[in-house]
Amino acid sequence: MKTITTSALREQINGKKILVDTNIIIYLTDVIQPYEPLSRLLFEMVEHGDVSAVFSIITIAEVMQGPAKKGRHRIAQDVKNYLLNFPNTHCQEITTDVLEHVGRDKRIDWAKLRTVDSLIIASGLEREADLFISNDDHFRRAVPPDLVLSFRSPR
C-alpha cells in the first residue's frame, strides 16, 4: 500500500492543531509498516512544537487496550502516562460540551460513524482542531476531505 510522502505530511500539518486518531498512535507503538515512519514524524513535529495535537480520552483508552488485553497492565499505564504528558498536546475528556458537537456539525456525515468515532471527532471539534489525522475508513467517509488527512496515498 502506498503512503503519502513525508514532505506532504509536513506541509499539510505544519502550524496546525490536529486531532490524532487511535490508529495513528498504534502505528507508532506497535511499529506497523508502512505507516510507522509517518507516525514517528508526526509525533516529532508535535514534540518540537511545529504542530499541536488533540487526543480524545477514548483514543488513549483504545491504545491502552492492546497491552491490557495481553495482560501487560504496566505497559498500558506507561502508554497512558506518555500520551497524557506528551508536549504540545491536549487530552480532551468526554464532557457535555463535547456531546453538544455530536450530530450538529453539518460537514460531518454522523450516520456513517460508530459511536466512539463520533465522540473522537466531537473531541476534535471541541478543541477546534484544523485537521483530523486518521486512516479509519469510517472517518474518511464521514469527514470532508479538507478536514481529514490519511497516511494512505490518494489513488
Summary keywords:
155 residues; Rossmann fold; alpha/beta
Main beta sheet: 5 strands, parallel
Which stretches of 5+ consecutive residues score pLDDT under 50? none
CATH topology: Rossmann fold
Q: What is the β-strand count? A: 5
Q: Bin the strand percentage.
A: 5-15%
Give me the side-by-side strand order of the main sheet: 3-2-1-4-5
Alpha-beta classification = alpha/beta
Distance between the termini: 10 Å
The CATH architecture = 3-Layer(aba) Sandwich
What does this structure look like?
The protein is α/β, with parallel strands linked by helices. It has a single domain, classed as Rossmann fold. 49% of the residues lie in helices and 12% in strands. It contains 8 helices and 5 strands. It has a 5-stranded parallel β-sheet with strand order 3-2-1-4-5, sandwiched between helices. Helix 8 links the parallel strand 4 and strand 5. Helix 1 runs parallel beside helix 3, helix 2 crosses helix 3 and helix 2 crosses helix 4. The longest helix has 13 residues. It is globular. The protein starts with 5 loop residues before the first helix and ends in a 6-residue tail after the last strand. The relative contact order is 0.20. The mean pLDDT is 95.
SSE layout and pairing:
Blueprint: H1 6-13, E1 17-20, H2 22-29, H3 36-48, E2 52-56, H4 57-69, H5 73-84, E3 89-92, H6 96-99, H7 115-126, E4 131-133, H8 137-142, E5 148-149
Parallel strand pairs: 1-2, 1-4, 2-3, 4-5
Helix pairs in contact: 1-3, 2-3, 2-4, 4-5
